[in-house]
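Anyone else keep sequences and structure tokens together like this?

Example one:
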Amino acid sequence: MNLTLGVVFMVLEQGLVYAVMAVGVYLSSRVLDFPDLTVDGSFPMGAAIAARLVIGGVNPLIGTLCAPIAGFFAGAATGVLNTKLRISNLLAGILTMTALYSVNLRVMGRANVPLLRTDTVFTVLHRMGIPPSVSAILLFCTVAVIVKFAVDIFLRTEFGLALRATGDNQAMIRSLGVNTDSMKIVGIGIANALVAFSGALVAQYQGFADIGMGIGTVVAGLASVIIGEAIIPPRSVGMGTLGAIVGSVVYRLAVFLALRLGFAPTDLKLVTALLVIAALAGKSIQRGVGIERRETVQHAGTKLCSQKLPIRHG
């Protein structure tokens, strides 16, 4: 199976543009330990808002930057449902995701909005003299790097440390006077802001915004995070965000290879599920082997200490 330069560029483009979404899923699932299904609604919401504003004549850069603002409020709504109304995290995400379907449809006006003859962020780059062949990968690479380092710096601030502590041990950080409810609301809002930002970029990259483009987004994001953790162990925040980005690229490569092997596009959700299962199974097997090795060493040490060695007299 030959991977031409064009194919490599295409995989990198798709992996990097979805990497922003993967970093958002990393924030909610790993940092906050919050299984957030809002992602399936905030991703198409970012696409819908950007598409609607761009078609309305708004500058593409402004339209793209408006998407994460809306995504933040969508995530904050899930946080409020969970913390203030005491609705479980899964149900809160499902309720917000369901509500966002109608909101997105209202924003778009119809199920699909084409952007083929409309100015986008890529049009702005072309006018700056950047060749169309490299504009997408240049933009996505720059955005992914900026988002990665911005998230790394944010999570090392005092507020970011409190956010991480909220995901690790709520009771402990609450005893220190930190409002964990506010931490959750803001943290989930930031995660969905990144997801919506990714949706805005994907819509302009694909040339359309569709009401169903968010289906399975959270699974794809989790697959990217899990694959990234298998490749790059998340020993620190920086390694965790880097793993999410690398995992996104590897996941898109796996999807491309699945299509090349003869899988139908309708089978991609099955491929995604199998990738997640394989990654989780690999981690479980690795963890089990590690425990077995430790038990073997401990048993050997105990047996050795229990043996009475002969004492030699000079």
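And example two:
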Amino acid sequence: MYSTVLQECNQSHATLVAVSKYRTMGEVMKLYDQGQRIFGENRVQDLILKKKAFPKDIEWHLIGSLQKNKVKMIVGEVALMHGIDDIELLQKVDEASHQKGCIQNVLLQINISEEPQKHGFSLENFLENWEKIKGLDLRHVRIKGLMGMAVLTEDESLIKSQFIALKCLYDGINAKDGHCFEILSMGMSADYPIALACGATHVRIGSKLFGE
């Protein structure tokens, strides 16, 4: 299944982030041996442990929510944080990166499904928040783009509408602010083909790669 998913991503010029949470070393190394080098973890502690145990040429992404008390542990340890969901957290990442002497790449998470249990900036109010973010003196974070998760449903038209809304936001900001974004992270095992069709540059896939 890995080769099929990878081919689909390559055809769409998208990057595959293999979600390795809860996976054994053997399962992860099977994908590694097939050439996969980008892996994503949801939890800070698990990511740090795996980073120490696995080959050093793996590029690690933090794809889950980041608690403010874990920021200092993770800055500089990952190539990309997908889930920056408020301005205060963004500022804490910038401050911790400054203290560590690094530049941290991040994505801003948008709650495109508008579900209260999900994290992220409101889609409706994001442009207002984006203007606030642009006014901040952030020297040690690099905002690379946006991330969003569609609602878990069999209604493909609803999933598509949410991905299109995020792509429109992404394109609108790029058109206005000189193509400042280059990453649009959306799509998981259940809906990644729709995400790819809607313009995702990165998809986060776990169970589909491991034969479930």
